[in-house]
Amino acid sequence: xxxxxxxGYGRTTMRAIAAEAGVSLGNAYYYxxxxxxxxxxxxxxxxxxxAAAAERVLQRDSRFDQRLHGVLHAWLxxxxxxxxxxxxxxxxxxxxxxxxSPFSPESAPARxxxxxxxxxxVEESDAKPLAALRPELPQLLWLLQMGVxxxxxxxxxxxxxxxxxxxARIVPIVDRLVRLSRLPVVRGVIDDxxxxxxxxxxxx
Amino acid sequence: xxxxxxxGYGRTTMRAIAAEAGVSLGNAYYYxxxxxxxxxxxxxxxxxxxAAAAERVLQRDSRFDQRLHGVLHAWLxxxxxxxxxxxxxxxxxxxxxxxxSPFSPESAPARxxxxxxxxxxVEESDAKPLAALRPELPQLLWLLQMGVxxxxxxxxxxxxxxxxxxxARIVPIVDRLVRLSRLPVVRGVIDDxxxxxxxxxxxx
DNA sequence: GACCACTTTTGAACACGTTCAAGAAAGCGA
DNA sequence: TCGCTTTCTTGAACGTGTTCAAAAGTGGTC
Lengths: 204, 204
What we know:
Two copies of one chain form a homodimer. With 204 residues, chain A is mostly helical. Chain A is built from ten helices and no strands. The radius of gyration of chain A is 19 Å and the shape is elongated. The termini of chain A are far apart. Chain A binds chain B through residues 87-88, 90-98, 101, 103, 153-154, 156-157, 161-162, 165-166, 169-170, 172-173, 176-177, 180, 183, 185-186, 188-189, 192-193, 195-196, 199-200, 203-204, and chain B through 87-88, 90-98, 101, 103, 153-154, 156-157, 161-162, 165-166, 169-170, 172-173, 176-177, 180, 183, 185-186, 188-189, 192-193, 195-196, 199-200, 203-204. Chain A binds a DNA duplex (30 and 30 nucleotides) through residues 13-15, 23-27, 29-30, 34-35.
């Protein structure tokens, strides 16, 4: 992690990592299957930091929009120091075959933990979504976060302020959508979306 | 392209490509800056095929939902033969610094052509979106297609039928949303979304 | 034809991720 | 302590993308 942070992922060689750790090159491969596998450590660390930061938000706020804003914001804050080389990380994660992909079985624990966080965010908030929407909302919010992460990776503005702006503007929209979800007209669309999510989850 | 299709991107070496082309290894690098640059040829070819297929759809149908369905479907059909190694392509495209990224300046021509296609799709259809939405719709539909592509990359179902199911189910939703866009309640949300898109486009 | 600048071509060399056969160390039952 | 198995460690070697200095070719001018 020290070398990755200092030199970036691409410029850090396995030989340098082995040397820094005081072991031989081959020995590094005894403990880590590949260079990619080292990144898992980065993910785990990031997720732990985010979970802690999100916890403070959930303790503090009870309004749905504030909770969502806080949790998404917390991720941006936690991830900021790593922005420069995060692109290289996520490049690997984008490979569907990579164990680092957020949709891979290997990532299931981290993914489930994250979805559980959003479940808590919803349940203990003042949000009153349409009944059909409620069970899907945590997963949809997780997907929203994946979208924010994707945007963030491409965001080259200073301190990723555009990502912050995105979060600040999209949270009220989501909040409004959740409120509107019980209105008759909107309801039909929501039902369709929920149906879509269901259809895609269970292999058709 | 022949070798990529036969062996996959990862297993095709630059040496093999050079040999197949009857030139030396170094000479391949005189004409293509890197192995990645060779992929551009794949993109261009794919886009041309899709443009042609989409053209036939736009000639045939006038209803907005049918046009959208046809255009998205056409992409899936055109891309299907390349699904297996497309993951490797898109992995490179996921790197924000890569010229292959759909958001990069180098991809601007292809991106603009694609957005123009969606503009035609909307304009010559029977859709009557909210005035504020109309100018943004082509870009939003292009984004939708990027989403479909992302889903498709991860789709390991036979013949990517899940991707087809996604398109079949999401098109009516989009159609309905466009219809609803002029309703007073929904209108507010649409305005917010359009505002968001504007805010993110011009550096804030 | 001789000279020159420029373009094209070449293959050796390099860096780095990864593999592997061989050896060293550690644990353990007798 | 001795032998055996298992775990750990090592560095040489390999494959591949990429670079580069040198050679070969091309075309134009006098």
